[in-house]
Amino acid sequence: MRKIVIALMLSLCTTMFVKAQVTAAEPEFSEETLLLTSDSEGVVLKRENGYIKTKAGASLYLTGIGKIKSRLTLDGSRSVNHIKAKRSARFILKAKDNTTDPNSFINIFKFEIYKNKERRYQLAEVGTLSASKTSNLASIEFKAKKYGESSYLIQLEDLEPGEYGIIIGDPNTENTKNGMKVTTFTVE
């Protein structure tokens, strides 16, 4: 009888642990991102203004043969958010609604740190004797589920240390005002 009671209690504890669910509130406004610090709490991440830098290699000027690269650039080598994510991170990202596949408009990527003064991500590369290449911003794979009325629960796994960015597009209409707004975070 004792073994049955112990087995039943272990089974109940395991079931409760497995069924633990995220209960944090959705962010207040559309395009806000909440980094979860527990199942019930999180911190709203600030967004930074990015800009596009386009640069040609020296060989293009000297010989007419070379490459031109366009990069999304943010000033500073660290995120303005002083929150440190771990190798796995969970976010609640609020959108206009949650009826669209989030992989079609949420882009998560890792920045390259340049001369310890800026973060950049290559968007496109064009060569005079080669084909042009355009990067797919969604370079970090993520799992997503609908969350609440108009949000998504985003889960990232096996993140390498570094600086990361999230760009949220609008799947229904282009929002030119927020085109270069980037939500950033650090993984240590």
Shape: elongated
* Quaternary structure: single chain
Percentage of residues in helical conformation: 10-25%
Order of helices and strands: HEEEEHEEEEEEEEEEE
Total E-strand runs: 15
Sheet bearing the most strands, described? 5 strands, antiparallel
Strand content: 35-45%
Rg of Cα set: 21 Å
Tell me the distance between the termini. Answer: 49 Å
Number of helices: 2
The poorly predicted ranges are: 10-19
Which structural class do the helices and strands define? mainly beta
Going across the major beta sheet, what is the strand order? 2-1-7-13-12
Which whole number gives the mean pLDDT?
80
In short:
By secondary structure, the protein is mainly beta. 12% of the residues lie in helices and 42% in strands.
Written account of the structure:
This protein is mostly beta strands and 188 residues long. Helices cover 12% and strands 42% of the residues. It has 2 helices and 15 strands. It has helices at residues 2-18, 58-63; strands at residues 33-36, 42-45, 47-49, 51-56, 67-75, 84-85, 89-94, 106-110, 112-114, 118-127, 133-134, 143-147, 151-156, 162-168, 181-187. The protein has a 5-stranded antiparallel β-sheet, with no helix packed on it. The longest helix has 17 residues, at 2-18. It is elongated, with a radius of gyration of 21 Å.
